[in-house]
Amino acid sequence: MERVYDPRRFLDLANDLLNDGDYERESRARTAIGRAYYAAFLIARQKLREKGVRIPESSEIHRIVIQTFMEKGLSMIGNPLDQLREKRVDADYHMESNITVSLGQKCAKLSEYVIQLIEGIKDLRP
User: Fold this and answer.
1) pLDDT, tens only, 109-122
2) What does the domain layout of the chain look like in residue ranges?
3) 8-119 has which CATH code?
4) Distance, CA of 116 to chain centre
5) Helices in 1-126 by DSSP H: which ranges?
6) Rounded Cα gap, residues 99 and 44, in angstroms
7) Scanning 52, 55, 113, 124, which has its CA 20 to 30 A from the CA of 96?
8) pLDDT of residue 104
9) Cβ atoms within 10 Å of 60's Cβ, excluding its own
10) Smallest Cα–Cα separation from 37: which of 75, 4, 66, 57?
11) Do residues 47 and 14 make contact, with C-beta atoms less than 8 angstroms apart?
């Protein structure tokens, strides 16, 4: 059986980083935000595929996953997932953005919330 990495471990890492004073605050906050987003994004993509939704590998995959949730009437997943994506882009690409440990903690909590919603999905409407 093929070993598959559990994306929830990214959220665990995000929380570990946020609580680890051995690293510079802003660096750990920026990294944690990225890991929190990817935990939720990868679980979202996996759920869509499990439910038979074709998600092509492309440079637009993040937009496609978010938009698919919106089109399926699941804006309570699509909107916060998009918020996490925006914070991840800020943390990774906009060095002038004020990225704090507090923001990282908010993103980790939002990621956990989104993951819980995704895990609760039984069926997806067409």
Assistant:
1) 999 999 999 999 98
2) 8-119
3) 1.20.120.330
4) 12
5) 8-18, 25-50, 61-71, 75-93, 101-119
6) 25
7) 113
8) 97
9) 10
10) 66
11) no
Mean pLDDT taken over the chain: 95
Whether residue 85 contacts residue 37, with contact meaning beta carbons closer than 8 Å, is answered with yes
State residue 21's pLDDT score. 86
Distance CA 118, CA 67 (A): 15
Report how far residue 12's alpha carbon sits from residue 29's, in angstroms, rounded to the nearest whole number: 14
pLDDT at 124: 80
CB 104 within 8 A of CB 36: yes
What is the dihedral sign for C-alpha 12, 18, 19, 20? positive
- The CA distance from 94 to 32, in Å, is 15
> Tell me, what's the pLDDT at 126?
64
Residues of the chain with pLDDT under 70: 126
